Amino acid sequence: MTNIETERLILRPQAIADFGVWYPMYADPQIFQVTNSPGFTPEEGWNRILRNIGHWSTFGFGIFSIFQKSDGAFLGETGLANFHRGIDEEFDNCAEASWVISRAAQGRGIAKEAAEAAHHWYVDSFSPPKTVCLIVKHHPASIRVAEYLGYRIYDECLYKGAECFKLERLCEK
Question: Which pTM value belongs to this model?
Fold first, then answer.
């Protein structure tokens, strides 16, 4: 499996051992407001992290857990995955970028640094023509991260009752 290091971070594929630090991030109600996640029980969280782990063995890429290099603290997750949300065929056939940063780690550039490293690895490894992401309209910080990574809004949609932007990033070969 792939590990990525940046100046401040270690990214590694999610593992079941991450659940104890990962689930509290998703149990935070303020995280749900910006991720359009419906809020889930520990059982649903367990199933979600199992999905993320299984994604790696099925596709060879997926969601990384992000740790601070200096002390090993869990900071969030990022990566690209085939979520197949049912938005539309073109969107669902592309790898979709994702990042969620714990509230304690927000505002320090972690999302940009980690997502940029994950994108470089993914593009170098798989040479996709483009990647996509879905962001709720009321989350300007995530839109700024997407724009930093080279994403541009190309459409809007409703996803699980939330108004969202569909963004795409053309990948250079």
Answer: 0.94
